[in-house]
Amino acid sequence: MKQPPGQESAYRNAGVDIDAQEATLATVKRLARRTFTPGVLSDIGSFGGLFQPDLTGIEEPVMVASADGVGTKLRVARMAGNYSTVGRDLVNHCVNDILVQGATPLFFLDYVGAGVLEPEAAVGLVQGIADGCRENGCALLGGETAEMPGFYQPGDYELVGFIVGLVDRQKILDGSRARPGDRLIALPSSGLHTNGYSLARKILFEDLGLSPTDPLPASPGEPVDPSDGSRLRGSVVEELLEVHRSYLSALRPFLGNPGIHSLAHITGGGLVDNLPRALTEGCRARIDRKSWEIPAIFKLLQQAGGVSDLEMFRVFNMGVGMVLAVEGAFEPELLAGLKAAGHGAWVLGSVEEGERGLSFSPGLLGAG
């Protein structure tokens, strides 16, 4: 029911336009319905979403849930006037977080908060979420769009996602099976993913004085050749808005493989904080820093910002998006399978006996 013509809305005068919200939500509903899977039993707009999972072949079903956001990557999207990718970032991040426990996604819920709801921006955010859900085979079951003037500033957005997945209890990956002698297989990131943007923005926009559309320099003061895609993507915004990679398609064929002992999603905290989470007591990861080429964007950020090795490896993923701890005998099979599927896997290091944590060879400058 719309406000009667000629009658002023007190709520709109307070900063909230219900009619604009309703028009936006109508589009959001259409986007969400395109993600529906056979388990969805309710429509968008219900007080709660209903979902009936297919438990065929699962002896002891266990639900796995997670929630996350995309941090200040949203500010880069705002600067670029492009909100079409951060929704995919959000879904992929959440999918990866439950994937490391062996779970595949069932459904997703989102929260979009704004000071003033701009229909085009809000639809762009949800469009990205819907795209991410379709790509990962999960339903966008519902969510919340909140307009809160005075709490969020005009132009500010908050984006949060909630995911629920399913795993057979006997196939749960919780790090307890990791042991000395395991080999570490890495899968590459697609860029910064969704972490370290506060530092990256400071270095690129404040220290180097770049604008979103400026070409990225190969090193401070030296413009990169835009045709050299192997190094940098050309412009600041192209590099910073590159979508956080989902590892579901890469790892789904191997879930349940007895050779996989644990998985680690390399997000905030980098390898330093995240890889030990996938290990048990008495296990220590040793990383061979010469096993991969650090992507150019991280080299630029470190050089331009004067950031120590240790801080770089705690703030950024440094080109490593997911790590598998695998039994040594299974390494050739798993590595070959991932490479054959085009996932760019390589041997990152190994698991040794010792205090839970990790070390680098050669060591990190600034770690002492």
**N→C terminal distance:** 65 Å
The percent of residues in helical segments reads 25-40%
Uncertain runs? 224-230
Per CATH, the class of the largest domain reads Alpha Beta
Element order: H for helix, E for strand: HHEHHEHEEEHEEHHEHEHHEHEE
Total DSSP E strands: 12
**What is the subunit arrangement here?**
single chain
Q: Report the sheet with the most strands, covering strand number, pairing sense and barrel closure.
A: 6 strands, mixed
Structural class of the secondary structure composition?
A: alpha+beta
Rg result: 22 Å
Can you offer a commentary on this structure?
The protein has 2 domains: 16-171, PurM-like, N-terminal domain (60s Ribosomal Protein L30, Chain: A, 2-Layer Sandwich), CATH 3.30.1330; 183-361, Alpha-Beta Complex (Phosphoribosyl-aminoimidazole Synthetase, Chain A, domain 2), CATH 3.90.650. It is of the alpha+beta class. Residues 224-230 have low confidence and may be disordered. The chain has 12 helices and 12 strands. Helix 4 runs parallel beside helix 5. The protein is flat. Helix content is 30%, strand content 23%. The chain has a 6-stranded mixed β-sheet with strand order 8-10-5-11-9-12. It has a 4-stranded mixed β-sheet with strand order 1-4-2-3, covered by helices on one side. A two-stranded antiparallel sheet has the order 6-7. It has helices spanning 10-13, 18-33, 73-80, 86-99, 119-136, 197-207, 236-240, 248-251, 270-274, 296-305, 309-315, 331-340, and strands at 61-69, 104-114, 139-147, 157-168, 183-188, 217-219, 222-223, 260-265, 283-288, 320-326, 346-353, 357-361.
